[in-house]
Write a structure and sequence with these properties.
The structure holds two protein chains of two kinds. By secondary structure, chain A is an all-alpha fold. Chain A folds into two domains: 1-85 and 277-304, no CATH class; 93-274, MetI-like fold (Orthogonal Bundle). Helix content of chain A is 78%, strand content 0%. In chain B, α6 packs parallel to α7. Chain B has two domains: 5-92 and 173-322, Rossmann fold (3-Layer(aba) Sandwich), CATH 3.40.50; 107-171, no CATH class. Chain B is an alpha/beta fold. The A-B interface holds A 128, 209-211, 213-221, 224, 228-229, 232-233, 236, 306-309 and B 55, 57, 61, 83, 86-91, 94-95, 97, 99, 102-108, 116-117, 120-121, 151, 153, 164, 167. The complex binds adenosine-5'-triphosphate (ATP) and magnesium ion (MG). Magnesium ion binds at residues 47-48, 179 of chain B.
């Protein structure tokens, strides 16, 4: 197990380097150091000397190889450096922002996955009946709404009208629950329909397998077949799919944190993108990739737990 | 003699985009207690659907039993609700399927799946576990103790079919339905599995409905044979009579190629021509198009002549009808 995790982490290094190099090229392919300097300098019309001073100060005058090394290898050592825009230590900001982000996105993630499994099992149990059909219609409706509409609608109805939580701000000292309730509900509503549809398909695929016919021929009840036979097998594709949820979670967090003023990593990245703060962007891209790789490793471990045909190491 | 299973004019149809597929369209046969009836016929003629109909396990929602009666131990079990059928399934009537590779749940151990066959019918878990071990030993697994904890993918096809047999026989059923139990296995394993089934049948005194392509198996195991064609029984007789003197041109065609004693392991011969479309059966004799002895009368559907205990033939030919007198 430990060997497996270590091996996977080593295998992740080339992936991380690749992603970071690509990010560097994308960033400096679209913006010159000079334009970044101008955006970050506070005076409206900086003198060329000021611009050159800024570039030198932030190391963007060094040879590309040195810059690239800073943007890739240093990241791998978790040396994130200071923000181009605010000169704050990036690692400190990440540590502060991680808490709120993790709380909100893991609430959404766990709620979505378990909620979707529950509804999908019900739909599959009552396949073909009006319960199943109603679920399908509701899901299609939910899926046809854009994320921002959920955010605005949620803020209006849940926060403003029903007062389930504040529209803006984050102060866990005065009760974490009310700050995460509305954003989590929005993330949940925006994401669950796709998962329900998918999980329902996975379950129905399993129901038509031969081993289900064997179970029926043994005299096993449909409820037991669903709970004891079908669900365990359907968990295999469900687990595969959960990693695919991570990018959506990151993007959703970006929007939610901004709209609700939650000082998490999403807000941080949003600010950094707005001010062309490359040193923050690359650190966040690194973390996002790391999270994804972590998700993949967790998936493989979960696989080995549900599927006896899969062995790790 | 009182029949254990009696199927009367069974019709099992499917609603499809092509219209109604009459997969089983008027099938009758019976099985006496402790005896074996074989059902033979070309692929797609409705053998498996007939077998699944008995347990009310026809693939839903497309498939449904249109009409007919199925008596088991004197009771019309088609009257039973789907839920009430559960008491019969696996306890009174058990079934073995053709595909040992996919018929077991890949994520549960052999012991779990075998015990479940008993616990769903009320046996307590420790007793079921103990009997599971006993059964695995009886069906010839090399290391039954280890097998209890193994998963299906760790066993070969032949071993999995032995496990399926153990599951089917766990509750000592009165009737075993075996749907081509050896077709998917290596030739060398086929004979072993069939003799195991036969042995256990004698041991438990159960009746068997055996669906097979293998005429050698039929001649060795079956007391009676029903030959199916295009969703119907075209000829039925005690095994010896049928092998000595097949009357229906279709049966004659199937048996033509080989002398009886050489038929072990040989599949039914395939005839020229194709089976008509199940969504659109011919109005007359369904075999007429492929038949060398066709008469004018064959444009009308032939009835099944004869009595159930001797020979029945569905044919207009005088030579075929003669035997029924
Ligand atoms: N789910 C289904 N939907 C529609 N038609 C079906 C379905 N299942 C079976 N059929 C029809 O029923 C016919 C009989 O099928 P069945 O499985 O009983 O054949 P069989 O005699 O067992 O053949 P084989 O020897 O290949 O196992 C098929 O030809 C097919 O047309
Ligand atoms: Mg079949």
């Amino acid at each position: 197990m430990l060997r497996f995790i270590l091996r996977r982490l080593l295998q992740a290094i080339p992936t991380l380097l690749g992603v970071l190099t690509l990010t560097w090229f994308l960033f400096f392919g679209t913006a010159s150091a000079e334009s970044i300097a101008r955006r970050n300098l506070s005076s409206k019309d900086p003198t060329p000397a000021q611009v050159q001073g800024w570039i030198k100060e932030h190391g963007y005058d060094q040879p590309p190889a040195v810059q690239l090394r800073k943007a890739t290898v240093d990241m791998l050592m978790f040396k994130f450096g200071k923000s181009d825009a605010t000169k704050e230590d990036i690692w400190t900001r990440i540590r502060q922002g991680a808490g709120p982000s993790i709380v909100v996105s893991s609430t959404i993630f766990i709620g979505t996955v378990f909620g979707a499994i529950l509804v999908a099992v019900l739909a599959a149990a009552f396949r073909g009946t009006y319960i199943d059909k109603t679920t399908t219609i509701v899901c299609v409706l939910l899926m046809s709404v854009v994320y921002t509409v959920y955010v605005i609608g949620g803020q209006y109805f849940l926060s403003k009208q029903l007062r389930y939580g504040p529209i803006w701000g984050f102060d866990p000292a005065s009760g974490l629950f009310k700050y995460i309730l509305v954003p989590s509900a929005i993330g949940f509503a925006a994401g669950i329909a796709t998962e329900i549809r998918l999980y329902r398909t996975f379950l129905l695929d399993e129901i038509s397998q031969d081993y289900v016919r064997t179970a029926r021929a043994k005299g096993v009840s449909e409820t037991r077949i669903l709970a004891q036979h079908v669900l365990k097998n359907a968990l295999i594709p469900i687990i595969t799919n959960t990693v695919a949820v991570i990018p959506g979670l990151i993007l959703g967090g970006l929007l939610l944190e901004n709209f609700f003023g939650i000082p998490g990593l999403g807000s941080y990245l949003f600010e950094a993108l707005g001010s062309n703060d490359f040193s923050v962007v690359r650190a966040m891209v690194f973390l996002g990739t790391l999270l994804y790789i972590f998700g993949l490793i967790m998936t493989d471990i979960a696989y080995a737990i549900v599927d006896p045909r899969v062995r790790i190491d | 003699m009182e029949k254990l299973l009696q199927v009367d004019d069974l019709r099992t149809w499917f609603r499809t985009s092509r219209g109604i597929v009459k997969a089983v369209d008027g099938v009758s046969f019976d099985v006496a207690p402790g005896k074996t009836r074989a059902i033979v016929g070309e692929s797609g003629c409705g053998k498996s659907i007939t077998a699944l109909s008995i347990l009310q396990l026809v693939p839903e929602p497309a498939g449904y039993i249109e009409s007919g009666k199925i008596h088991f131990g004197g009771e019309d079990i088609l009257e039973r609700s789907w839920t009430d059928m559960r008491g019969l399934r696996g306890r009174e009537i058990a079934m073995i399927f053709q595909e040992p590779m996919t018929s077991l749940n890949p994520t549960r151990t052999i012991g779990w799946q075998l015990s479940e066959a008993m616990t769903v019918h009320g046996k307590d878990a420790p007793a079921a576990r103990a009997r599971a071990l006993e059964l695995l030993e009886r069906v010839g697994l090399r290391d039954p103790n280890a097998a209890l904890r193994q998963y299906p993918h760790e066993l070969s096809g032949g071993m999995r079919q032995r496990v399926m047999i153990a599951i089917a026989l766990a509750n000592r059923p009165k009737l075993l339905i075996a749907d081509e139990p050896t077709t998917a296995l290596d030739v060398t394993v086929q004979a072993q599995i069939m003799s195991l089934i036969k042995e256990l049948q004698d041991e438990l005194g159960m009746a068997m409905l055996l669906i097979t392509h293998d005429l050698g198996i039929v001649s060795e195991v079956a007391h009676d044979v029903s030959v199916m064609y295009a969703g119907q029984v075209v000829e039925a007789a005690p095994t010896r009579d049928l092998f000595h003197d097949p009357r229906h041109p279709y049966t004659q065609g199937l048996f033509a190629s080989l002398p009886a004693r050489n038929r072990r392991g040989k599949d039914l011969m395939t005839l020229d021509g194709i089976v008509p479309d199940a969504a659109n059966w011919p109005t007359g004799c369904r075999f007429a198009e492929r038949c060398a002895h066709r008469l004018d009368a064959c444009s009308a559907p032939p009835a099944l002549h004869g009595s159930g205990t001797h020979r029945q033939v569905r044919c207009h030919l005088p030579s075929a009808m003669e035997v029924t007198k």
